[in-house]
Specification:
Structural class: mainly alpha
Helix content: 55-70%
Strand order of the largest sheet: 1-3-2
Radius of gyration: 28 Å
Length: 488
Amino acid sequence: MDQLAPVLLAFPPENPTDDNDTYDKAVKAHLNRLTKLLKDNNADLILHGPQLLELLSPAVNSLSYLAVLHTLVIPSLATSMARDLLLEKLAIFLVSFDGRQCRYAGTHLHDLLSTVGSGQYLPPSVAVDVLATAILKLDPTGRMLTSTHIILARLAYNTDNIEPALKVIDKIIVFYPNMINYKEPQYLCDLDLFPPAYITRENGLTAVVKAAAVMEYDLLCGMMYCARREWAKAHAAFERVVTFPTREGGTSKIMAEAYKKWVLVSLLLNGKHTDPPSYTGAAANKLYGTLGKSYVSVATSFVTENAEGLKAEVEKNAEIWQEDGNTGLIQEVLAAYQKWRVLNLQDIYTKISISEIREQTLSAETGEKLGKDEDVEALVQNMIIGGMLKGVIEKNDDGTVFLTFLSSTTELSELEFADELLRMASRLKELQPIFRATSERLGTSKDYVKHIMKESKRNEKSDAPDPTLGFDAQVDDEDLMGGVIQTG
């Protein structure tokens, strides 16, 4: 114990420095001492592990704490420490570690994250929160996808612990592991590095992330948003899978699964279904039309006034919805049908009585009118509360209840306008480093350099448009994915 403690407490120094060169040398020297300690004194670390964890600070002595904790947890929980106490120390470490230090011990950190992600040790709600917090401690921007993201999404969705995962899955992914044109950084501790420069397979902070895993992550995100009825976010997540670039213009089972859900969510979000975006692969588009035929038929019926036809279409293919795991979404679509019929009335009326709404709209769940005016009033009230409909319910002196549609566009006050400008400015500030990183990466791309040279020669002969225009069309899917496809 007396021999172990001084080594473990030696880093960070009493007077830490932000200078990258000094910090890098100090942390590497400490790693060498830790490596020797783990090799020569492994049994002592297990024996005195409980006392050492009490002595060390997970937030200050993160590398040493990680070394002891990894020894006690991997490959199985040590018997020298009470299980509950050890798991408590594990959770505390993963929500408080110093991300800068742990860049140098990626494999050990990833082992602990995978252990928590297995769902075998911590309660699911705790495990999901711990994983989400750890991901953001390592990458505060949340812009890079790692193998831990997929572990998190699976655990959150399968255990229905979605809320604590939102702080991660709400982030827009920009970077992927081992993207091309990112060289090994001079200093791993440099806090100005972009995530792809230090979160790599080589340093162990992420495992291989294949194209299928990227699509699985977006699919799981979409399904979690569906569970929360956040249709816009679900639609965007499914669309990323539907439009995923593939080799030789093919498609996959997971893409077809996302397409089916995307069609249904389109109805809930927009009240109609449209073709996939223009950048969707041509081969994939053709297959979607075949594989999702039943779903497109539902979408076609949804925009008509034939509620009975929609109900019949849904009942006819009940087995398909069940097999695809989309019965819940189909029920949401049936429930939304009358709401969209009510919403469409604002194209004709500015004010309409509740009784008239009952006469002019049908429920797709029953194929009939609602039983009484009070049911229609409750439906409309829920639409207003949920933000789907802008309007107010009023009652005349004679007792007639009316719905008055309000304008969907309202003028902002001067204060609200100023707040909106501040939000936009803040968002633009957040995007600046991402834009700079993307530009730097593009500028070092061999394909881009070839393209610029080709356009320069063309410019010598005649006036030409901006050489960056049309570049996307000349880059292979592998390059567009920036290395994600290359891992397959």
